[in-house]
Amino acid sequence: MNKARSVEIGGRLEQLRARIRALAEQYGRAPDSVTLLAVSKTFPATDIVAACNAGQTRFGESYLQEAQEKIAQVNGHCTAAAGAPEWHFIGPLQSNKTRHVAELFDWAHSVDSFKLARRLSEQRPSEMTPLQCCLQVNISGEASKSGIPPAQLGELAARTAALPGLRVRGLMAIPARTDEPDAQRRAFAAVRTLFEDLRAQGLELDTLSMGMSGDLEAAIAEGSTLVRVGTGIFGARPPPAGT
Ligand SMILES: *Cc1c(COP(=O)(O)O)cnc(C)c1O
Q1: How far, in Å, from the CA of 210 to the mean position of ligand 1?
Q2: Between the chain's N and C termini, which has fewer beta carbons within 10 Å?
Q3: In whole angstroms, what is the distance from residue 203 CA to residue 165 CA?
Q4: What is the pLDDT of residue 80?
């Protein structure tokens, strides 16, 4: 393992955690109300172990085959007091991926249809705890983006909440990219409103998965409980293998 790289990752994590706590306080929230998901897609297993040894336990992956290899390499090698790593699938889901996601991951953030939800539930091994999941909302209405349209969210949430192999924890969104903080906040505020509407209807949700390296502050300002950060921890991303 490369010592300099470990020190770099550990230092970035420490700074980022301090920034997240400070932002939470700045927006009137409890300093520990925002969880950090380290997005390790395209980075090697050695980087994940380094982050683990620096106390990071939650990791996000987007590409199934890459994740399968890395999870096998990492599990058992994280000796951190913080405990075993927790794996979150955050990439686009298709029917041909659900079995592996159901068998390998602790969380799936990109559930956006009942068909996918039902498959994940059926394929979740019975000896495992239910797959924790977020429903992905297409908040900016982009045709190219994954996510359920807001108008269909209520029905999807109610039906998915009844599936035995899943536990619906909240919503995930990736708003249209903009560098304009007010526009970032408006998109996240819209997700938060949907989240609060579902809670008002009786769904027990506790997770708002929103905010990445470039829009972290706006997301925390609007109530994010889980930020997904890759480049802000591991640096610029190499292109995924095979592209
Ligand atoms: C890659 C990715 C991230 C992390 O993005 P960064 O800009 O590297 O912080 C977060 N969420 C999802 C869904 C991603 O695919």
Answers
A1: 10
A2: C
A3: 16
A4: 64
The whole-number average pLDDT for the span 177-200 is 97
3-state secondary structure of 214: coil
Question: Residue 98 Cα, ligand 1 centroid: separation in angstroms?
Answer: 20
C-alpha distances (whole Å) from 133 to each of 80, 115, 119, 181, 209 are: 26, 14, 13, 28, 10
Three-class SS state of 239: coil
Q: Hey, which of 16, 37, 40, 90 would you mutate to test ligand 1's pocket, going by the most ligand atoms within 8 Å of its Cβ?
A: 90
- Burial string for 207-222 (b: 16+ CB within 10 Å, else e) reads bbbbbbeebbbbbbbb
Burial (Cβ within 10 Å: 0-12, 13-18, ≥19) of residue 34: buried
Could you read off the pLDDT of 128-174 as tens digits, one per residue? Answer: 999 999 999 999 988 777 999 999 999 999 999 999 999 999 999 99
Region 99-103 average pLDDT: 98
Residue found by looking up tokens 């409980």 in the block: 225
Q: Kindly tell me if the per-residue pLDDT of 29 is higher than 70.
A: yes
CB 157 within 8 A of CB 203: yes
Backbone CA torsion sign across 101, 102, 106, 110: positive
Quote helix, strand, coil % in the chain, to nearest 5: 45, 15, 40
Q: What mean pLDDT do residues 218-228 have?
A: 98
pTM of the shown model: 0.96
- Cα 240 to Cα 25: distance, rounded to the nearest angstrom: 36
Whether 194 contacts 171, CB under 8 Å: yes
**Residue owning the nearest CA to atom 7 of ligand 1:** 213
